[in-house]
Design a protein that fits this description.
7 helices, twelve-stranded antiparallel sheet, alpha+beta, four-stranded antiparallel sheet
Amino acid sequence: MRSTSVRLLPILLSAALGTGQVMAALPPPEDRAAILAMQGEYAVRFHFQETVPLSPGYEARQAKDSGAREVVILVEDSPTKIVLQHLLVSPKGHVTKHWRQDWVYEAPERFEFVAEQTWRLRPLAPEETAGKWTQCVYEVSDAPRYCGTGAWNHKYGNPTWTSDRSWRPLPRREYTVRSDYNALNAENRHTITPFGWTHEQDNTKVRREGERTVGTLTREFGFNDYRRTTATDFGPAYRYWQATAPFWAEVRARWQAALASGGLVLDTPVDGMPVIEALFELAAKRENGDAVEAGAIDGVFARHVRPLAAAEATAQR
């Protein structure tokens, strides 16, 4: 939506609702423009480097560098919510659905990672979110990963959003090589640049037992640099999304319903592969033009996703 439309929206809503009804606050147009600027086609560099050892005898692991070609597609755009889907394209044109980021202005709640494969929905007080956006990040299967809340800063010419600190699960890049920690305490920063945008991470690697911290290993700096490119054919990604978007919309609705109960527990190994593989197989059917019955998606959730309240009740018996 153009900034002019955003400025006119309070007037239009006031006429539609009547003067006796209170309207939700609308975000600054420049905030929305910054988030929407993350759309596009990118060559991406990923860099992660451990910096400050926090445990006696701990030795920093080798830095990790990798790259990818990634397109960011707009999925939803309303005055107070923007949804962006990332899709990876390999040199041979293979498409992999990647992470998703949802942005909500003055969000009333967010999910939080609280224990192994466990997320809890937490209400947010108005004073926590006034003038702020909550970004929630989702797995390739659209399962929850983490959320952060913060304000956009436009003072210095390059819009920058900085989150509060929050918990997130073990990163996928370390599932198969690390067992000495199981959570990150992290702060995110997104900056819009002349070349695209960047995603900085201030991570602390931690061992947790449930919601209790039992050890802190090291700090880590993460830097993901998204630079616009015209050197890659992203046609396969657009075709994939055109064919599968309705399917993934159904999947997102199932996850939202599962979280709405107060939270959820994934009954899978830490990598979540049973859910990822099952949903990707169904998406491939849809991509090939085959029907996918709603019961097939429900079956995946019935096997692997449990309401948090039910899981906590079982654990207390």
